[in-house]
Write a structure and sequence with these properties.
Elements: E1 6-8, E2 14-16, E3 20-21, H1 29-41, E4 45-47, H2 55-65, E5 73-78, H3 85-99, E6 106-109, H4 115-118, H5 124-142, E7 148-151, H6 155-162, E8 171-175, H7 183-191, E9 195-199, H8 211-220, H9 224-234, E10 238-240, H10 246-251, H11 262-269
Parallel strand pairs: 3-4, 4-5, 5-6, 6-7, 7-8, 8-9, 9-10
Antiparallel strand pairs: 1-2
Helix pairs in contact: 1-2, 2-3, 3-5, 8-9
Amino acid sequence: MSLTDTYTLSNGVKIPVLGFGTWQSADGDVAYQAVKWALDAGYRHIDTAAIYGNESSVGRAIKDAGVPREELFITSKLWNDAHSHDASLEALDTSLDKLGLDYLDLYLIHWPNPSGIQAQGSDAWKSANADTWRAFEEAYASGKVKAIGVSNFQIHHLEALAETQNIAPMVNQNFLNPSDQQADLVAYNTAHNILNEAYSPLGTGKLVDLPQVSNLAEKYGKSIPQILIRWSLDKGFLPLPKSTHESYIQANTDVFDFTLTPEDIGSLDKLQSVGELHLDADKATF
């Protein structure tokens, strides 16, 4: 496995096994430079979202990096204020315009049950997601997006979507790391040929001081982030580490010359619940 290796989505689209996240990368020079460094380091998979507020800077970095478009895999996400058929299509066009792209490689529904939808009634999210997904399917058919998926969806959200969908989600991006392995959800996604993408693969920094991790870093001659990214890859996930520091961005790619033993994976698995857990999407306040 290497930085150029890919997973194959259910529709045959190839997606690089390691992505570069841009959450909390401030619009302007910070996001621009981070993405530029990532592309210079060999990343070809960049993940952003409308709510990150940095799509324009990400797009500028993509343009300036000079990497052929066909070599890139660019993801963005629909925010919670556009959960309807027409609004989601308008939001997609806005994201494409800000990124300076003709198409996205992957477009995701960012959250399944925004607070604004919750206020409309207990089952309002089901119809809102169905209408939104219908638009996603149309965008996919038109070629504006090469793959479609979801983020932060739990099993009951996926099951509800399946009642009306014509095309199943190809990706489900979730908070996944040794502290929150979401085993049932991961198994469901895998059984339904939905790729598990792992945002916050380092556990938002809560895992870096644990001896179980630092001991493995010493054993393998790797950094703690490299151990956690490798755990994600060894699980078959697609991790999305983020950084705004050039040295860390580069170091996070140095994870393909080793694998963790089953015993060492098991030791990290025992860290379930020691740090943060995922946010319950049905209790989202945004």
